[in-house]
Structure formats: C-alpha cells, structure tokens
Amino acid sequence: MNLDLDHCRALDAQDPLRSLRDQFDIPADTIYLDGNSLGVMPRSAPARVAEVVTQEWGRDLIRSWNTAGWFEMPRKVGDQIAQLIGAAPGTTVATDSTSINLFKVLSAALNISARRSPGRWRILSERSNFPTDLYIAEALCKDKGWELVLVEPEEIPQALQDEKLAIVMLTHVNYRTGAMHDMTSVTKAVHDAGALMVWDLAHSAGAVPVDLTGADADFAVGCGYKYLNGGPGAPAFVWVHPRHADQCWQPLAGWWGHERPFAFTPDYQPAGGIVRYQCGTQPMISLAALECGVQTVLAVGPLGGMAALRAKSLALTDLFIQLVEARCAGQGLSLVTPREHAQRGSQVCLARAEGAYAIVQALIARGVIGDYRAGDGQHHADILRFGFTPLYLGFEDVWHAVEHLRQVLASGEWQRPEFNQQHAVT
Fold first, then answer.
1. Residue 295 above 90 pLDDT?
2. Residue 251 gets which letter from DSSP?
C-alpha cells in the first residue's frame, strides 16, 4: 500500500466521522495529539459557560438551583457518561476528581471485602499504573493495616492465586504504554479468585468501547477532561454496580449524598444508590462545560456509535505506526504500544534512549502537540506519547505529524538548547 499524502487525503474523504471535527475549534497550525491528557475545547463550551455565568448565576442567582436544574447536574451528566461506559441509568455520577472518587470506591470495596472475607487484606495493582492511583491505594492500606502488592502485567494471573487478595485495581488503558486489558476476562478471573474489581477508565471512557455491566465489574472511576473533552480540571465520574451501591457508606459522607439534603439532620442518612457517592456542593460551571464535552462524544451515536469511533481510532493508530516505521527508520525509535488491536487503546507510545523530552518539545514548537513521560531507569524507558482522538483528528493530520517527526530527527533539531529546558508540565 502506498502510504503517501494523497492516500491519507483519500481516507479523510471517505471518513464517515469527518463532520464531527466541526464540533471543535482547533487552530489551523496545530495537530493535536494530546487528547489523552487534555481534550480539545468544544465550540459549544464558551457560550454554555457564559450562559451559566451571566444568566443562571448572574441574573437568576440562587433560583438556578431549581430553575436551571443545578442540583441534578451530577446525575444528569453521569447518565450521559453512562451511555459511553456500558452502565445503566442511575448508576453513574459526575463528581469530584478521579483521585477522590478512587478513594471512595476503594474504601467501599475494602469495607465490603472485610465483611465478606475477613481473612483477605491485600490490594493488587500494576507497578506501571498511574501513580496517583497507587498513592491513594498506598495511603488507604497504611491507614487500614492492609498491603498493596504491585506486579508487572504478565504477573497478574499468578498474583490472583494469592488467598489474601481482596481487591484488584487496574487502569483499563495504561497511561504510559496505551496497552489495554480485556476487561471482561480480567474481571472474571478476579471474581473467580474471590476478589473485587476496580477499574480506572481515565484513558478509555470516550475513546474505546467499554461495557462495565457486561463485564460485571464492581466499581469504576474515570476522568472528564481527557477524551470526554470537559476542560482542564473537569469533574470526574464514579460508577458502582447496583449490587454494591447500598452495602456501605462511602468515606466522604457529605450533604449532597444525604437521603434528604435539605432536611439538615445532624446525623448522616445516606441516599440510596449512586447518589451517596456525592459529597459536597458541586461546581456548576465546570459541570456545564463537561456536559458540552460529553455531548461531542455522544454525537457519534447516529454515525455508528462507539464501534465506529473505535474503528477510526485503530485506523489512525495503525497508520501512525506504519508511517513512523517507514519514514523514521534508523532514528532510534521503538514501539511500546501493542500492535494487536484488542490490546491497544487510542494512543501510540514510542521509546527512545536519548532525547525523548527534547524531541517532543521540538514537535510542540512546530505545532504538533504530543507529550513526554519519563522512564524510571529500570523497568521503563522515556516515552514520546501521542493520543488519537477520532472526533477531531484526520488521516492527513497523521501524515503531517510523522513528517514533522522525521524532520526533527533527521535534522537533529531536537538537540537545540531551548528544547532541552525542562518545563513544570511535560
């Protein structure tokens, strides 16, 4: 196959999802390959946020809790997200941050497991899991006298044989590598081992098909500002299987999770179901922006749904891999992300022994926005990370991105001093 620019333009012309790009206002000189870190702003977001600020807050003031439906917003947006993660209505709520929500569900899982299997007191996760997930689990284990066990992905089956294992906490798509777990088979194996399954969907919700109900998962959390395009610091979401929702309090009992919030009782009376996983007053401006972002993903429904989005994601990432290997051969890049479709999320990660950070900075200066993740000098190499959001990326974008990468490497441009100065955010 001739992987030239004309071929990529032909793929764009045949793309059934190409109209979805119109939902976003992307600068003409930018190829954005970092939607797995921060999604692009929807065109609808500025007007919607302005409406909340000037009309609902500015003019209607406190009446908007009732007239604008503010109080129901976490559940309303949660139900929209539920459509993207295989969850039933009323089982998902948009609230707080991913880290806070993880603390809630891990605490709930710990309490449920302690009652059900008091001899189990270990939480299992991957050593390469996103650090904040590990920090939350570590802190909880220290507080409760439990143990956090970290293994490599290939060691998980053996680790499930541990009779002390209570909870398995995994990220569906790994943030460093883009490797994706088979949610259904892993969840079944965890249940067969007598443990509870907690999924972090930060790098999969809105990017790959997810079916929490079909997989029979126990708990899940996820991010609102990556593939859901909710804006920097957007509220996250939490999902709890109905069989667990009423079994225990979550540890951050707050008035929004009360059965009758405006009864103002001095004692906590938890609401039924997912509502109790709310805590304090929620950020209405941020929720409004998140809803705009979620709607950009839901717009794929009439065009084939998440299956169509997934097909384009795989086509984009396949093309990127093929072009990099053809056009950047001999430049020290190695593929970290799995080639197998069933094992790949919506990003491609490349390792390089030298200059990974500077190469990314040189690309950013050219308008090709990816990011960098440092290695640890032992298990993991430095990573050039590229996210592919099919809603607004095209095949011509991929061709130009690889051409910029080729030029940066071939010319040695990345060695310029300004590209080797570390920024606070990489």
1. yes
2. S
Give the pTM.
0.96
Residue 171 DSSP SS3 = strand
Question: Per the structure block, which two tokens stand in for 86?
Answer: 């295989």
Mean pLDDT of 289-295: 98
The arithmetic mean of pLDDT across residues 155-174, rounded, is 98
Nearest to 326 by CA among 44, 101, 8: 8
Residues designated catalytic: 130, 200, 225-226, 385
**Neighbouring residues of 169: CB distance < 8 A, sequence distance ≥ 6:** 102, 106, 123, 124, 125, 129, 133, 137, 198, 200
CA 212/CA 414 separation, integer angstroms: 43
What's the average model confidence in pLDDT over 348-375? 95
Q: What are the beta bridge partners of residue 93?
A: 238
Residue 100: C-alpha distances to residues 40, 47, 64, 221, 390 (Å): 24, 29, 27, 9, 29
Task: Return d(Cα 240, Cα 270) in angstroms, integer.
Answer: 15
The C-alpha atoms of residue 305 and residue 301 are separated, in whole angstroms, by 4
- pLDDT exceeds 70 at position 214: yes
Measuring CA to CA, which residue among 45, 39, 43 is closest to residue 23? 43
Helix, strand, coil shares of the chain as percentages rounded to 5?
45, 15, 40
Specify the residue for token string 């948009």.
94
128-141 burial by CB neighbour count: b if 16+ within 10 A, else e?
bbbeebbebbbebb
Gap between the Cα atoms of 75 and 114, Å rounded: 29
Q: Which helix (H) or strand (E) holds 237?
A: strand 237-240
Amino acid at 112: I
Residues in contact with 44: Cβ distance below 8 Å, sequence separation at least 6, in sequence order: 23, 292, 295
Alpha-carbon gap, residue 23 to 286, rounded angstroms: 19
Q: Which pLDDT band holds residue 125 (cuts at 50, 70, 90)?
A: very high
Which residues, in sequence order, are bridge partners of residue 334? Answer: 351
pLDDT tens per residue across span 17-68: 999 999 998 998 999 999 999 999 999 999 999 999 999 999 999 999 999 9
CB 149 within 8 A of CB 122: yes
Residue 99 gets which letter from DSSP?
H
Secondary structure letter of residue 222 according to DSSP:
E
Rounded Cα distance, 52 and 49, in Å: 5
